[in-house]
Amino acid sequence: MLYMLDTADLEAIRHCNEFYPLAGVTTNPSIISKQKTDFWPLVEEIRAIIGPDKMLHVQTTQKQADGIVAEAKLLKERLGGNFYIKIPICEEGLKATMMLKEAGIPVTMTAIFTPAQALIAAKAGADFVAPYVNRLDNILSDGVSVVDDIVQLFNAHGIKTRVLAASFKNAEQVHKCALCGCHSVTITGDIMKTLISHPMVDTALANFDKDWKRAYGDKKILDF
Ligand code: G3P
Known about the structure:
Layout: E1 2-6, H1 10-19, E2 22-26, H2 29-33, H3 39-50, E3 55-59, H4 65-79, E4 83-88, H5 91-103, E5 107-112, H6 115-124, E6 128-131, H7 133-137, H8 143-156, E7 162-165, H9 171-179, E8 184-187, H10 189-196, H11 199-216
Parallel strand pairs: 1-2, 1-8, 2-3, 3-4, 4-5, 5-6, 6-7, 7-8
This protein binds SN-glycerol-3-phosphate.
């Protein structure tokens, strides 16, 4: 399981990069525009924070295959490292994906809502497909079961494309994706923290501290 951060908030990225086993960062036009700042300094700073080895997924703003390919090449050239171009599923996007395979630039096909879309994206050469879990839940569909179907479909057809589940409202959705064998998720910093939080941890730590202090006061192991 790979955990990525779905944000362009630099503080959240710095924090999660330091404290969590972060595999990369994903963005989209809505996420970028939320920061209300210039595009290049923002994405270059994200790359500087996570370094060249972690994945950085940036979404195209173009609609035609030639434009998508041009944008992907420019982004790859300027951001370097482990870079993925995110392309929404559509005919031009599929064409661009096939062209980018030739050019050696990895693709994450995004805005996936059905297993059929995911399968065609994979056949076009997408390295990741990104189904939107919570947006499906919001329309009385079942986001986790769509993720589950895609995972089963890829396994049944021996497809190497990985599932990058996205659009989460809570940690339960994320964990259910993990249970069905989903390869990766992209989540907010808040959900990342919720995944490791439990009230019993706080109680256990408080008791350890109390017992130690009763015996040794403020001394630490390093002080003996
Ligand atoms: O990056 C796409 C996906 O994460 C969108 O999430 O929360 O806007 O539905 P959300």
